[in-house]
Give the backbone structure.
Amino acid sequence: MFSLFDTFSGSLRPLPKTGKPVKLFVCGPTVYDDMHIGHARTYLAFDILVRLLRARGYKINYIQNVTDIDDKIIRRARELKTTPRRLATDFLHRYLADSRSLGIVSVNKYVKATSVIPVIINQISRLVHRGFAYATPRGVYFRVKKFKPYGRLSHQDITTLRSGYRAEPDPGKEDVLDFALWKKVTVPAEPSWPSPWGKGRPGWHIEDTAIAEKYFGLQYDLHGGAVDLKFPHHEAEIAQAESLSGRQPFVKIWLHTGFLTVSGQKMSKSLHNFVTVADFLKKYHPDVLRWLALNRHYHSPLNYTSVSASQSVNSLLSLKSFFAYLDSCRFVSPKRPAVTSALERFTRVWNESLDSDFNTPEAIAAVFSLVREINTLGVLYRSEAALIKKTLTSRLKEVGLSIHPSPVPDKVKELISKREVLRAVRDFRRADDLRDAIAALGFRLDDTPSGPVVVRNDLEITPLKKL
Ligand SMILES: [Zn+2]
């Protein structure tokens, strides 16, 4: 049975297969800037999870919200001398294009906040009606005091939370913890919608509960997002939804992904260490980022460095080289039991690791244990190699990876043959020179039981070398 770590209860919770679609909501982007690799880490983690669950036979209905109206959007549009609507549309297109480039294809529907304004207004009216919200001359706020479990998801005490707040911009608010559901426009040129409380725009948290109610209802299965959204965003979502429905829990399992740092530091404009997805893809194949995400448990923080990127390239290349070796095995003979039992062990560890809170680093480690074990068996027979390849291909596909060694050009093949001749006459110095020459052309060479295997390093984008 597949189980996931629920942040709310702090425990592993089973995800039963009921035949009905599992409803998953993941907090999507605020579209005022380009996607960076920190965002990508979260969206890749959920893409991998959804692909895996679907491969396991679950039906998943995966929705991401898009915040296309927000203070940050308005501010950025002013800086760039454009309109908030145009800015949001442009960055949404770029976000979707980056997601596609990264192979994130598992989202069923992206829903814009501006597409659910009537639902938002309806929810705020119901909250006001039940005493969970109140209007001031500047907007409408959620009355946190009225919702007793507030702070439970982030395991925080409401009194401590309150003392952490500084001066309040709206003197009409009853409590510093109260959060905006509706903000009245102060500048006539700003985007606004009519409402019972005057022209304005929604607060950030209410868009997610409105989208949830429209597509899922006010109780559903899985809600995910980056760890920094736990408070106040997800806490606010729970308060809104449970006050609206009068039922608990809003969400059965809360999933949070760890932070991504760059060389040990948080990404920030002032440190000039922002790595956008577009920057990353100028240097590396998208699989390199997926590989980085896979090799770290999704809760854990991930530290990105140029060294970790190179390590990813190397381990992916070694896997490509192993696949190329499998393709090179020609001898015909029946399969040995050692091979089938190694594969059975691998499949068991792979499944158990992923079934238990989606432990991808453990699953990937199992791939390399299998490779090491197989490499101790000497020359593989063709049928064995085919079975190993089939098993690995189908497992890796579950997490969105496909391993294809690129064709090797004739010029490189000639260098390999020359090197073999030199090795046969024990001229190892010149043979090593040729190995270096092959590496300099962007190819990795491994000597295997069935001879030299070469794969092209197509994971790092480097200027094309002349062959
Ligand atoms: Zn959200």
Q: What stands out?
A: The chain has a mean pLDDT of 94. Residues 27, 65, 208, 225, 233 surround zinc ion (CB under 6 Å).
